[in-house]
Amino acid sequence: MELHIRFEGRKGLADQLYQQLRAGIDSGHLAAGTQLPPTRLLAEQLGVSRKTVAEAYSRLTYDNLLSGVVGRGTFITPRQPIRGNDAAAIPLAAADTLERWRQRATVLARRALDAPSRYDFIGGASSKAQFPYDQWRSCMNHALRRSQRHTERQFAAQGLPELREAIAHHVAFTRGVQCSPADVLVCNGAQQALDLIARVLVEPGCKVAMEDPGYPPARQLFLALGANVQSVPVDDQGLCVEQIEDGTRLIYVTPSHQFPLGMPMSEQRRQALLARAAALGALIIEDDYDCEFRYQGPAAEALQRLDRQGLVAYVGTFSKTLLPELRLGYAVLPPAVLQAACVAKHLSDWHSPSLQQWALARFISEGHLNKHIRRCHDIYSARRERILARLAGDLSPWFDAVPASAGFHLSALAKPGVDVELLINLARKVEVGLYSLAPFFSDAPVRPGLLLGFGAIELLDIDPALDRVRDTLQSLS
Fold first, then answer.
1. What is the value of pTM for the model shown?
2. How far is CA 416 from the centre of its chain?
């Protein structure tokens, strides 16, 4: 690697070299541990004498900015870079807009930055220990071989045909979704699917309805696009459809496993929602984020299956089913929305990573995904039953479980007198990560309680963790 050094004139060359190297080290552009060229080689590259380079190196070594290792060479010494004066920056004309975006950070984004507790009931996280790494590695090797043989430089924004076909078969088999590969759009996680749908439907001032409590990243996304977001309350049957306002353009729901409370939307309420959407000409986003895992009773049909008028956009993800690092999701879109969403996808990032698409297509087609779901189902079911037993047992004086039959989290509503926020803070001190329901409420009165995820906590850790929660509650009582 050649260093970029620019001399002005032919006087004081050693000093000029010293100053430029020092500036690069101070700014961090020349990173700690970087090996500098030998004096003879750098002198030849710069067209100066070796003595000039040696003098500059010697001064930098004296300043403790360089260190020599016998037999290896000269390296930049680790140190803190000197930052420029931020006060000299010119305020941007878009400062107010930037501040509004900074305020869009959700509780889920902030929570991801917290150090995990020894016993962590975080929601939305799956068990990495169950992921079939050997099978995935084999599928990635297949993808690399496909890449070697692939001669085209561009890929369709909608996604690779083989992955769209695999997704269409999977959602038809597991969730009863009615679609063909032509209806599927591959995305970077479900969040991008929400963004693309909203981007082509939402304009500043238009009405968007969503559940309250609900999924904060969806709410913040709609608000960021300028929507007038209506918070629609939920009851034990799901979204209160009759409260959706006239003029609503987009409706966001989680009908199979309401987020965060967990109850499914009743059949009567589903039919009412479809009828209301038809009357409004509104599109429904059905976020089916974790319903491959169902523990009791017959599986509720996807809302999309009941749709006969092209009103439902079905959104799913593999980040929760498999690994969050995959960042692959999908949307099954009605014809009226699909083409516009594909254009938005192309303008956003051209297409999702092709290597991972090839690998996932093979992973699904070889049956590894369904095997993984069946294996994890038994594991998650045992964890869920253990938490429910504790909530019905020694934790019953303080909490009531919300009935839920799917997913890998459940909610527990606090009984009068329980200070949930204080409990969470005290539990953190005894290495138990608990999470409040409060941040998921917007306009509806907050129902104090806990969101208890069981995807990332091992079965044998549940009782020791809940023992500490019980002891903390007893001390508060």
1. 0.84
2. 34
